[in-house]
């Protein structure tokens, strides 16, 4: 009987029969064909730090969303949430690759092999204090209504930033933003439709939606607080000061909550951007244990 090639054989043959590292190799270079030259007058270390901020937000939120796989209220929604997470993982990969290309952490000092790609080293082998994500994306999911409220807020904030980043002097950031705005517009609209359905639905769904919104709103406290890196890169026409997005974000969220017959909570007072500076609560450590556990136990694994 003739040998029938399996999908695993095909994967192996596609790379010359050599074992591939299990957590990321075997894909095209994420920045292949893109001009990765750092713009004149821009500190590469600060550009890399900024890419970590944006990339870590995407990576951490994607991990939170995958917690709903097999647990969503509808099969169709399970697929939708997974697709949103995949979009964010794609953004994270590009942004972490950009951070690696300008020398952020080089190849992580915790790497076990030189074959580990930079973006994977940054995702799997950094400690919690090296992450630059906000509390908004790191907070536990809560119930489905709270997850939808968080997705609405996070995607609205991120879309406002990415829309401006399309004009960045850094060609990589501009390219990532150009693609990302379409994904983020879908994420925001998907969450908005769900919040309308829940808020203007049954008495129970309305109550849960309001509780979800009330739980998420305090997490906006540091979202509009820029770091010095963000301020300098904004002045260099490379990054975006999050404070410049406040009016747009508040307008969108106010309109959605009004249509969903939900009470708009008070906007929290601005707080220091602790997450952007590597200061996190135990929830991020717990999340990273799940994300990084397998890679750390088997750092040189191949398939």
UniProtKB/TrEMBL annotation:
Keyword match Oxidoreductase: yes
Keywords noted in UniProt: Oxidoreductase
Enzyme class: oxidoreductase
GO MF annotation list: phenylacetyl-CoA 1,2-epoxidase activity
Entry keyword Oxidoreductase: yes
EC number: 1.14.13.149
InterPro entries: Aromatic_CoA_ox/epox, Ferritin-like, Ferritin-like_SF, PaaA_PaaC, PaaC
Official protein name in the record: 1,2-phenylacetyl-CoA epoxidase subunit PaaC
Species this chain originates from: Blastococcus goldschmidtiae
Lineage summary: Bacteria, Bacillati, Actinomycetota, Actinomycetes, Geodermatophilales
Gene: paaC
């Amino acid at each position: 009987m003739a040998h029938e090639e399996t999908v695993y054989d095909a994967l192996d043959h596609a790379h010359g029969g050599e074992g591939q590292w299990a957590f990321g190799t075997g894909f095209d270079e994420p920045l292949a064909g893109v001009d990765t030259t750092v713009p004149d007058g821009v500190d590469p270390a600060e550009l890399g730090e900024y890419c970590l901020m944006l990339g870590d937000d995407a990576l951490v939120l994607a991990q939170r969303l995958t917690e709903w796989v097999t647990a969503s209220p509808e099969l169709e929604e399970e697929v939708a949430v997974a697709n949103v997470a995949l979009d964010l993982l794609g953004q994270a990969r590009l942004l972490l690759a950009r951070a690696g290309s300008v020398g952020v952490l080089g190849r992580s000092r915790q790497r076990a092999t030189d074959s580990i790609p930079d973006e994977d080293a940054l995702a799997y082998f950094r400690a919690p204090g090296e992450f630059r994500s906000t509390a908004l994306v790191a907070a536990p999911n809560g119930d489905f209504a709270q997850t939808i409220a968080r997705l609405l807020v996070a995607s609205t904030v991120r879309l406002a930033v990415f829309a401006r980043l399309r004009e960045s002097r850094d060609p990589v950031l501009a390219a990532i933003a150009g693609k990302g705005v379409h994904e983020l517009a879908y994420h925001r609209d998907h969450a908005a439709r769900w919040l309308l359905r829940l808020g203007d639905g049954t008495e129970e769904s309305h109550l849960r939606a309001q509780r979800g919104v009330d739980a998420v709103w305090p997490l906006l406290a540091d979202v509009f607080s820029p770091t010095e890196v963000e301020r300098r890169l904004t002045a260099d026409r490379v990054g975006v000061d999050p404070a410049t997005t406040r009016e747009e974000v508040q307008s969108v969220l106010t309109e959605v909550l009004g249509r969903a017959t939900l009470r708009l909570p008070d906007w929290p007072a601005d707080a220091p951007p602790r997450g952007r500076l590597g200061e996190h609560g135990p929830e991020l450590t717990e999340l990273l244990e799940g994300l990084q556990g397998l890679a750390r136990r088997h750092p040189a694994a191949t398939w």
